[in-house]
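Figure 2 data, in text form.
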Amino acid sequence: MAKILSQDEIDALLTTVASGDEDIPIDEPEIDHQLRPVVAYDFKHPNRVSKDQIRTMENLHDNFAGHFGSSLSAVMRAVVDVELVSVDQITYSEFVLSLTVPSCIFTFTAEPMEGACVLDFSPSLTFAFVERIFGGQGKAMEAERELILIERSVMGRIVRQLYEDLATSWEHIVPIVAKQVSYESSPQFVQIVPPGETVVVVSFQLKLFSTSGLLSICYPYVTLETIISKLSAQNWIDSTKKKSGKDDRLLNQENLQSVQADITAVLGKTEISIKEFLKIQIGDIVPVDVTINEPLQMLVSGKSKFSAHPGISGRKKACQVMEVFDNTKRRLMNA
């Protein structure tokens, strides 16, 4: 609402204009510096992936960075740091222009997602890996050339491990099967989508000794479209908890399999008084509460678990399990 000046303020203003004096302060509206900044929106290239979905991609690939760093360290026999740098939503033409020539580019599919994705290693990183695998110190080579066949074979081993770790990370969202399609050294020959198509580019910083470089994974929107509804924070949390619970159950089962337990077959039992017990002599017969045709009770760590018939297996005495009981001694199933 506009401020209404009083008569005194109007007279002071007219006096200032007439005298040219600008030293009289005039109340100005306060500016709220906490207002949200204005962000330009490009209607020609709208953001097709929401911020929530981008955050899920960040969580997913941050998990991948840990897996891939461990795998690379084993292959290189040295510590390799893999750090997630950014997850950007740009056009495919912008991604292609950001690549160097020549480069180390692999295209791959990730079923059930449709279409192809792009994997790019920076040249300095590529030659450092090759040099390290052949027994060197992992130093960067200042060579602007394409990889020869042997070097491509070495990088193929690393890429196959990357596909496995990537599939492991995507399990929280959707199980994928990554398969390599082609290798290219020039970005201009990698045209998997139109130049104006939206893509999500995930960038990693890899460091081997004193050499560092970028690893980029490009997901076209048309590839993510089939599973885009699953890229939500809530879905990520739910699937992570479910996977964690399943892993815990399998781990507990594996740990319990190696636990030793005592199994006891109870041939029979009875109750007698202390007076009768003190009078027992050699040759006396103590009757029990089990007939010769009734099954025996078998205890596992002192708890009733089975009923069985006594017998002989080879030269050893044995019991054949006939029924299985739970902790409350109720029958679950017949053997």
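Caption note: DSSP finds eight helices and eleven strands in the chain.
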